[in-house]
Write a structure and sequence with these properties.
seven-stranded antiparallel beta sheet; about 525 residues; alpha+beta; binds ligand LFPHGCPZ; 2 domains; about 50% helix; TIM Barrel
Length: about 525
């Protein structure tokens, strides 16, 4: 994925990280305020239910008392007793006595116009029935609820049945279990009243919130304005906003941190290794005495998906730092083995003499780990190990004991070992003397000095002489001019490599170069 795409995705994530906690907190505040209002309404509906039950119980008690006392003649004593119980019972406004199904007297005296008892609107337990909206005998026709049993009824003020004090504005009500509204404390839209009177549950309808609960033969409900919950949500929001801001800031920081990680060279390199974004090019190595191409140095390139290419001078040190170099070495081994096998197949064995020099990092040189990978890969590809030269810089030989073990194993397997960039390190001479090396590659900085009045130009003859006296083959790196080539050939240097001949080439181009320089007439 390109850096631009990653940056775009990260920006989107950062915006989401900033907005989501705040939006989440707003939603949470609204939800929790609605839930708390719902619980609040349920609580008041419960109290309303208790209040109505107590009112009915008191009225029931008064009727039972009169029934126990057995007065039934509407005598002054009977009426006085009914009046006494009416005054003593808070929920009862009037008590009536019926004879032969007609109202004969009430707590306030004898009745002139007889009132007949019909079928109750709500049948309660123990044979008690509730008549709704009965005209009171003495209260200017105000509608009353009447609890009736036997020959008595007790008129109850509907509002008294539900007079529960509330801490916020809400409408309370009571209904029978079959949906008949017994009492309601304020205006409620008809459809909502029908809803809360007819089933248990809580919710929101239009601008109202409601809760209805039931027990026995009664159902109580509480209704409030939804804006109350909204106001509470807004209040809660003020407390929650700092938390939202901190969470947003943390998430944004996390996204930026992840972006930094993802865009860090280390991470990019790890992804590139996984995606095999590396190719191997071949820089021809020329035999100076004949001018023929005898092999090549394998040089890796990182071709990124966005079309850019990154120099190994950048990614090899990075890979060494992060431990990814082993995977890169293995990748180079696989590419070189595959190319050599292909060339052999295509040319029918003509390339058997050609060698490819593989760069081995100092970590690999110290551990020798790559040798097993190399042996297996070459065996699988049916490529001779003599065709692979191994190059390592002086740094790879610093731990002489470990390097010696690797070199000895590599030489025993048939590989040629070269010391790369010779002359640029500090321990060159001692290394040359103590390690079983085969080839010395003179660093291009010395080659560049040939023919110039630079101090390094004086060193080259000594390096060549020393290399030969130790029986090393010598490869000169970075040969760019004809004069350098002539100087090196005359000095007896065996091989040269550099832009004078060719830059590093893709496999097929290298093969074409090789074929051209190796034609009998070339
Ligand atoms: N461990 C591994 N190291 C690797 C691998 N592939 C490359 N490398 C090392 O990276 C360094 C840089 O390599 P590169 O940019 O490819 O440069 C090489 C040549 O292109 C360059 N060169 C060759 N001829 C000339 C020339 O005439 N003039 C000039 N200015 N530069 C030239 O030199 C580099 C080859 O150097 P060397 O390896 O010392 O022979 C480099 O150190 C590579 O070793 C890998 O797979 N593994």
């Amino acid at each position: 994925m390109s850096r631009r795409k990653i940056a775009a995705i990260a920006s989107l994530l950062a915006v989401l990280a900033a907005v989501t906690p705040l939006a989440g907190i707003a939603i949470y505040a609204r939800h929790s305020a609605a839930e708390s209002e719902k619980r609040h309404l349920e609580e008041y509906a419960g109290w309303t239910l208790k209040r109505a039950d107590r009112s009915l119980d008191f009225a029931r008690g008064a009727i039972r008392q009169l029934e126990r006392e057995g007065l039934s003649d509407c005598s002054p004593a009977h009426i006085a007793r009914m009046r006494q119980l009416t005054i003593a019972t808070r929920s009862v406004e009037e008590i009536g006595f019926f004879r032969n199904g007609r109202l004969a007297c009430t707590s306030w005296g004898r009745v002139d116009q007889p009132i007949t008892m019909g079928k109750p609107d709500v049948q309660l337990d123990d044979g008690f029935g509730l008549f709704l909206k009965m005209p009171a005998r003495l209260s200017d026709g105000m509608a009353m609820n009447a609890l009736s049993h036997g020959n008595y009824d007790a008129l109850m003020h509907p509002a008294r049945m539900i007079d529960v004090l509330t801490d916020t504005a809400m409408t309370l009500g009571i209904a029978s279990i079959n949906g008949r509204v017994i009492s309601v404390s304020g205006p409620v839209p008809a459809d909502l009243l029908e809803r809360v009177a007819s089933r248990q549950g809580a919710g929101r309808q239009g601008e109202f919130m409601f809760a209805a609960i039931e027990e026995g033969k009664l159902r109580a409900f509480a209704v409030s304005d939804h804006r109350l919950a909204d106001t509470r949500a807004q209040k809660d929001l003020w407390y929650l906003i700092p938390l939202g801001l901190v969470t947003s800031a943390l998430l944004v920081a996390l996204v930026l941190w992840a972006l930094r990680q993802r865009l860090s060279p280390h991470k990019e390199l790890a992804i590139a290794v996984k995606n095999r974004e590396f190719v191997t090019l071949y820089q021809p190595i020329i035999e100076l005495s004949t001018g023929r191409c005898v092999g090549a140095e394998a040089l890796m390139r990182w071709n990124r998906p966005d079309g850019t290419s990154i120099s190994p001078e950048i990614f090899i040190p990075l890979a060494e730092e992060t431990g990814l170099i082993e995977a890169l070495t293995d990748h180079a081994i696989a590419c070189v083995a595959a190319d050599l096998a292909r060339w052999k197949d295509e040319a029918g064995g003509e390339y058997g003499g050609m060698h490819i020099a593989l760069n081995i990092s100092s970590a690999d040189m110290q551990s020798g780990r790559f040798l097993a990978v190399l042996a297996k890969t070459l065996a699988d590809a049916n490529v001779a190990s003599e065709q692979i030269w191994l190059e390592a810089t002086e740094r790879g030989f610093m731990n002489a004991a470990a390097a010696r073990a690797t070199i000895e194993r590599a030489r025993a397997a048939g590989h040629v070992i070269a010391i790369d960039d010779f002359g640029t390190g500090y321990s060159s001479l001692s290394l040359l003397e103590t390690l079983p090396l085969d080839t010395l590659k003179i660093d291009k900085s010395f080659i560049r000095a040939i023919g110039k009045q630079a101090a390094t130009s004086l060193v080259i003859p000594h390096i060549i002489e020393m290399g030969h006296s130790l029986n090393f083959k010598i490869v000169a790196e970075g040969v760019e001019t004809e004069a350098q080539q002539v100087y090196l050939r005359d000095a007896g240097v065996e091989f040269a490599q550099g832009w004078l001949y060719s830059k590093a080439l893709p496999a097929d181009d290298f093969l074409a170069f090789h074929n051209l320089t190796n034609r009998p007439s070339a």
